[in-house]
Amino acid sequence: MARHDEIRAEMMRRINAGEWPVNRDIPSEVELGVEFGVARGTIQRALSSLVAQGLIERRRRAGSRVVPRTAHASRLSIPLIREEIEDRGFAYGYRLLDRAVVGGPVPHLRLCCLHIADGQPFQLERRVISLTALPQAEAQPFDMSGPNEWLVREVPASRVTTRISAEAADPDSAAMLALPPGAPLLVVARQTFLADAPLTRVRLLHPAESYAVTTESF
Amino acid sequence: MARHDEIRAEMMRRINAGEWPVNRDIPSEVELGVEFGVARGTIQRALSSLVAQGLIERRRRAGSRVVPRTAHASRLSIPLIREEIEDRGFAYGYRLLDRAVVGGPVPHLRLCCLHIADGQPFQLERRVISLTALPQAEAQPFDMSGPNEWLVREVPASRVTTRISAEAADPDSAAMLALPPGAPLLVVARQTFLADAPLTRVRLLHPAESYAVTTESF
User: Fold this and answer.
1) pLDDT tens profile B200-217
2) Where would I find the HTH gntR-type domain in this sequence (chains A, B) (predicted)?
3) Is B73–A74 a contact, with Cβ atoms under 8 angstroms apart?
């Protein structure tokens, strides 16, 4: 092991053990050079990798300090369901179960679609598309592929809110997902806006045993 | 309404209606100035706010174009449970249900804690802390406040993986959450690492009707 790697490991141990407490200055590079009996460049090299890992923060004209573990934020990305199913090595299937144009003061297109993995129901998509905001949706049959693919391709970037929750399957959804009523579902609900105008909202229902949302943060 | 706002609204309508299709150049600023009968600066002002919203992309030495709605990514942040409960206006309560030091080749501290909102079980925390990585955890009783608060305060930043899923409550967890067995739970599972060393892993179990994870993206 190179000397700077040894020093880095010892620094990690000190951070870990609380010998270098969070939010407090660690010894200066000069002091550490003396302690470890190495040139300042070797200390800097060891510190740099801890800085890169986000464990140590360097401050100009001040010391370096140990960074607290803040409320971690991760990037959450929900891929296209077709890609998600194919990435798992399953054959993707699609069925349009219901399509209705609903008039009234807020005309919208109501869709219910099933996304299938190797013949098994994987996701039930219950969607509403605003025909005020997206009148061109009415001409789309959505019988061969899902509205999400069309939306991603045709509708420009905007604001999206996401809510991930669990619920017991109602009898109707349970039947479409080939589950017993009351079976636990993971539900991803999204609303999409162009500026402040609502474009579409969707509830994506998944059998609990076959789906999870995962993220990673540094 | 200012003229540039009117022009911006008309541009939004065109984007929305597909008259300015995704991934295609829109007319030049000069052409738009002629069409709307305004100075180029007014066109630029209208375009700038669409650029700021991420709907239009300006390219050097090329035209501007409508940005496709890509697979949206959002920031997912899971706050401290105490703050989450208090932010909802509930009184926070805490109970340590189980604490055990487990020896063997991978010594760890096993904890089971209940987080309470206005007297109702809100979150069951099932946690394991590595005593190889964090030997100082063994001295913590965790009888008055949860291990997450201690970890956030004492343990430096690192990598976190998160998995959000749904499941039916096993009889043991159901009893602690005052739910019938099989009730749907929203489960947030997290693993925390310092560099590659696992520090702690936790399963946070929530009654489905009282909890959701929400995010917003632009």
Assistant:
1) 999 999 999 999 998 876
2) 1-69
3) no
